[in-house]
UniProtKB/TrEMBL annotation:
Location of the Beta-lactamase-related domain: 58-327
One Pfam family it belongs to: Beta-lactamase
InterPro entries: Beta-lactam-related, Beta-lactam/transpept-like, Diverse_Enzym_Activities
Keywords linked to the UniProt accession: Hydrolase, Signal
Signal sequence, start to end: 1-20
Species this protein is from: Hyunsoonleella aestuarii
Name used for this protein in its record: Serine hydrolase
An MF annotation (GO) of this entry: hydrolase activity
Amino acid sequence: MKKLLLLFTVLLTITSSVLAQNEWTYNTNSEASGWDSTALMEFNNYIIDSTKVTGLIIIHNGQILFEYGDIEENSYIASCRKSVLAMLYGKYVENGTIDLNKTIEQIGIDDVEGILPVEQKATIKDLISARSGVYHPEGYAGGMQEFAPKRGSVEPGKYWLYSNWDFNVAGYVFEQETQKNIYDEVEKQLAIPLGMQDWNRLLQVKEGDTTKSKYLAYPMWFSTRDMARIGLLMINKGKWNGQQIISENWVDEMIMQRTTYQEINNNVPVFKNTGVNFGYGYMWWLFEDMNDERFNNAYAALGAMGQAIAIYPEVNVVVAYKTKAAYNRINSGQVRLNLLKKAIELYNP
């Protein structure tokens, strides 16, 4: 009888742990937590009237404070994939499997049009910080190569440019050096430990035009609430339910400034006069020079059309939103940035 009771207790503990991972709790008193309920209603109307967003969620102190649209539907998260890849890198950088100081020449990177001698000096670290100086054509659209300097004119590490060639090669390098599949690692390192409710491994398929570059992109499909789990993991410095999923040191490394907002605004002036200044870490965007304490140390994963996971440590808030590509719904760049500002400006403790 005692053995049966013990077994029942163990099973109950396991079940409770699983539920704790999978179930969200809701903030039922936004006013007491510093959120104006009228302003939240106005924000909801703004999303409906002025955006193409299909799902949005605000998390405060680990609880759902606000949700809009379908937060369970899986869809394409565009360049947010790059920030997820950065998270996967940590384990293998820290155990020595990936050496960020290796050059692309040392690890055998070549491509359709070849790699110039100066480009061969680029390191893995340069790739994941968008500072490779390699302006080879991308096999998967989404970079900003229209702003690129003349090919071969820049020393690796000396110039920032958001290029999908860098990011796609970073995915290839991850798989080559670890002998692991990116999607399997998302499942193993993130989806299972975080209890993602909507993760579907079958949706994850690599894409790219191999006539332009042999390095494929690794598109990812998540639900909005599973994107929010990524944000919660990051805001908690890699810890989930008492378990260190990603080391705190690696979280700090990812969001350490590698490029200033001044350099980004100079090299790729699309962010000038938008009300948001971004620096850059390891495939994460960093809010800088915002003149608002709520944005102190904030950072985000950003994707085309309207995908974001934004983390605001100063106020313990995560905002995740996305726009389903299949609906041909596209938010302008300014609207995407407005959402990140408006959501956090609702909070006045």
